């Protein structure tokens, strides 16, 4: 295989892993609430800013910085659920859970919270890019045969695989994971058999936001800068991956995120970097036309 092509595929896998971590948050929340959380991209940004605060003020090691981003992201997700989603869950009957008005209200509420968070970050940190100190940058070249990868790519790929494996363990080998899967499948049935719906929803927001927060600081360490609007583009592409995967399929979201990342990287061979964003939007349009339930989605509802 051509060396440049192999490098582009690896770059695409790195980007795809970031999209996958964000898309999982979208998918988990949609699974338990049947609504889209448009403030999820801000959890990614908050994690990045929490990390740079630890770096600039406390000079903590990278491993501890990532753990702080995980914790802050999870806490922010819990606060987000309390502010933007819980007020619209006062009624738990089947008609209310399936109400279009409830879904539209929560969508607008999460969008409003997203704008508020972005404005607050700009107020306290400024709208300009915040640079990562040079000693924390993950750009050291690591030669592997004919190609040379950066330490940041290893960080993103390795940490993402560990977090995805941890998520699978939580979902299939813990009580809270069982509750998440049960409520995603049948919220009323789960409630009638004694599962705590509110507690499970809070845990879902925490888990999804933790992954988003970790993704934010890892991208910051790799790219060298963060800014208040940095979550918009990755969250939009993660949303496309979620739609392609079928809205509630975690494996589908991960696979489609990786496909999207690799296709974007390869597209730079034929068009400029800015135009490569068209790949995600093209995939979204094609999915809505030819796979209205998503490529890996069940036939419970059209996208």
UniProtKB/TrEMBL annotation:
Coiled coil: none annotated. It is a multi-pass membrane protein. InterPro entries: ABC_transp_permease (IPR001851), BCAA_transport_permease (IPR052157). Its main location: membrane. Keywords: Amino-acid transport, Cell inner membrane, Cell membrane, Membrane, Transmembrane, Transmembrane helix, Transport. GO terms for cellular component: plasma membrane. CDD domains: TM_PBP1_LivH_like. Pfam families: BPD_transp_2. The chain crosses the membrane at residues 12-36, 48-80, 154-172, 201-227, 239-267, 279-298. The keyword Cell inner membrane applies. PANTHER family: BRANCHED-CHAIN AMINO ACID TRANSPORT SYSTEM PERMEASE PROTEIN LIVH (PTHR11795), HIGH-AFFINITY BRANCHED-CHAIN AMINO ACID TRANSPORT SYSTEM PERMEASE PROTEIN LIVH (PTHR11795:SF371). This is Amino acid/amide ABC transporter membrane protein 1, HAAT family. It comes from Desulfovibrio gilichinskyi.
């Amino acid at each position: 295989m051509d060396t440049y092509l192999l490098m582009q595929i690896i770059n695409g896998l790195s980007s795809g892993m970031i999209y996958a971590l964000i898309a999982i948050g979208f998918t988990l929340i949609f699974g338990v609430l049947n609504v889209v959380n448009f403030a999820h991209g801000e959890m990614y940004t908050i994690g990045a800013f929490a990390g740079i605060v630890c770096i600039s003020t406390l000079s903590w090691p990278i491993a501890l910085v990532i753990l702080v981003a995980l914790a802050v992201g999870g806490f922010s997700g819990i606060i987000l659920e309390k502010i933007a989603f819980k007020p619209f869950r006062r009624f738990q009957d089947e008609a209310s859970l399936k109400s279009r008005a409830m879904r539209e209200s929560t969508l607008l509420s999460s969008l409003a919270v997203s704008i508020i968070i972005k404005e607050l970050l700009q107020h306290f940190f400024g709208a300009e890019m915040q640079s990562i100190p040079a000693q924390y940058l993950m750009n050291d070249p690591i030669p592997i045969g004919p190609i040379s990868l950066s330490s940041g790519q290893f960080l993103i790929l390795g940490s993402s695989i560990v977090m995805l494996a941890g998520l699978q363990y939580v979902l299939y080998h813990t009580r809270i994971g069982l509750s998440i899967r049960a409520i995603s499948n049948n919220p009323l049935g789960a409630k009638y058999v004694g599962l705590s719906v509110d507690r499970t929803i809070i845990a879902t927001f925490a888990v999804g936001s933790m992954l988003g927060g970790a993704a934010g600081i890892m991208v910051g360490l790799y790219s060298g800068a963060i800014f208040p609007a940095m979550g918009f583009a990755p969250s939009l592409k993660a949303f496309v991956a979620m739609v392609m995967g079928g809205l509630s399929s975690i494996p589908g979201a991960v696979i489609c995120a990786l496909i999207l990342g690799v296709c974007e990287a390869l597209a730079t061979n034929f068009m400029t970097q800015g135009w490569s964003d068209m790949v995600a939007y093209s995939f979204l349009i094609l999915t809505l036309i030819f796979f209205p339930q998503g490529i890996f989605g069940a036939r419970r509802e059209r996208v």
